[in-house]
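Give me the fold.
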Amino acid sequence: MFYFSTLCSGATTYILHISAVARRAKAIGVSAFKSTVEVVQGLHHSVHSHLLENRDHCAFIKAMRASDPDAAAYYLQRMVDAGEDPLFILRRMVIFASEDIGHADPRALVVATAAVDSFRFIGLPEGMYPLMQAATYLACAPKSDTVKRTIGAAKAAVSDHGNAPVPTRYRNAATGLQKELGYGEGYQYPHHHEGHIVTESALPDVLAGRRLFEPTTQGEEAELSERLRLWGRGPGDA
């Protein structure tokens, strides 16, 4: 059992799986140890990869979220050495760049997607360079969950009011009837105004004044927060 525990890196579910294989082998008269070792060696990477999704993968994401590049580098290397698909890891990093960093550092998403393209072009072993570069960049980037919160707020708004009527001034008058109904009347073309902006809400009337996007002061997101404040669209502005 110590041999299998070592080979399985202490993963309890993996050890139980191998024990079950050994019992089946013994029942048909095959050497349990010999047959089990062959099974482990043949399936090690695929089964271990599945376990990594619930162990090393979670630790990797949490290390980046905690802004710990050392731990992120360690878990990344551990996953790759264990046979995890690098493209799966990169997919998670692209998601992380938007979910946990977002506007706080817009370059994070660019770095993550560039790492995907670079790895596909290079492959292993040199593909570890863009992998590690992206992981450590994401770990060191300022963090913000504003994008995630905005998705939740937008879903809540749609759930609360469904397909609320679009204000008539924001409807395109493509036909004579639509013009008669007042479509497009009162629309203010932003480029004809100072600063190329109008402060009126484009939301349906029932949602006017409701804030869905509320940026933090994290990293470069602080600039967006200040810009909205100057436009009268910051927290507390109606």
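Residues 22 and 34 are 9 Å apart (CA to CA).
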